[in-house]
Amino acid sequence: IISNFYNSNICFYLEFDEEFIYFSENFYDLKSFNKNNIDNNVLSSSLNGSISAHSIFINNSYPLYHGYRLIKTSKSVKFELIDRSCKNNDPATCLLSVMDKISDHENIAVSFSGGLDSTAILYSVKKKFPDKNIIAFTWYNKGSSNNDLKYSQEICKELSIQLLRFDLDTGFLLNDFKKETCVFPPFPFTYLTSLGFVKYYVSKLDEYFQKKPFVILDGHGGDHLFFQSIPYDILDYKFLSKLKEYSSLYSINYYKIIKKIVFHTLIPSRKLQIDSFRKQNIYEALFESSVASIRLPNHIKFFFPYVTPEMISCSESFDISDTFNESFTRLHFRKSFQKMYNSDYFFRINKGHMTGAYQRELKNNYDFFYNLLRNGYLYKNKILDFELLTQKLKLASLGVGGFDVNLMNSIIFEMLYKELSEI
Question: How far, in Å, CA of 214 to CA of 210, rounded?
């Protein structure tokens, strides 16, 4: 049994032979690593953002994310979550108690989008440590119509917290894929698009704190655990009482919802089970906070409050059907923080995005990304539809459409593969 405890925020990679266990924080440092030893089935699934098992695109290796333990016998290898218990089922109170984990840090920086999760963190850390040196930092995109910056400024002013602002129009997206500066994940996913920007803002924060120790609080995982989205395939007869609310929330007519519930009743094997949905959300939150990062000096730490065992347990105490109404998802989460802090900022419907900045990056470097896909592993091994993908690239570079996961993950993989080819 090998355990990787919660809050390590590190992924360990393992392989086995008849006598030894080999492990490393980098999968390319394992004994049998070979850039040509790629599991194309795992790779193909990951390009569409579909990762649902403890898998890696390099054969014969196992990733062990924080919060999990690996159990190996002579016949099998299996993974399970490390035990946890729910001591507090109120999200606001629980998050406040989780802040005890950073009590030894005098300097605290909150990654602050103005959205629900980062707003909850900012209020909590200010209430918990009113006398510590707390700042917030946010980013803005000159070509975006969202008003994140406006709300971020208002909230920080209300809490008397200094707000640092970083312009996304800096050319730091979709670059810096170097093993010396970045921790590579076991499959491509979209967070890697921003690693160059992460490196940039960490360096700016380090300047601000004059090279003294500090911790960065990141709200990743809150949307996974507290149900930012409730998929169509999870509906069953238990949701009948919420039919009107679900219909209004997702703009789906009653007939389609009832048809889906009847279908699941007749063919239950086609229904996404609620327990499976919860486990998948927890899995995604834990692996995403384990694998994508920059390499940090010892005096700088990242902390993800929502992927602590306490907050995961808290999220499991709610029935999913009670977490939304006709206007809001995550209703239980919003009400808890509104009650504690008497603020309506927790009922903002939307938060902004980086799409405009990514599209500019694709436009400014169109030939590079086109040639990367044209000459890459995915095209040569017939894993991607090159014509379709380059059409998406062209449209995105013109500012048409949103953030296409398949396009971004394909570019990310080719950039990773290019770097791995030099190992």
Answer: 10
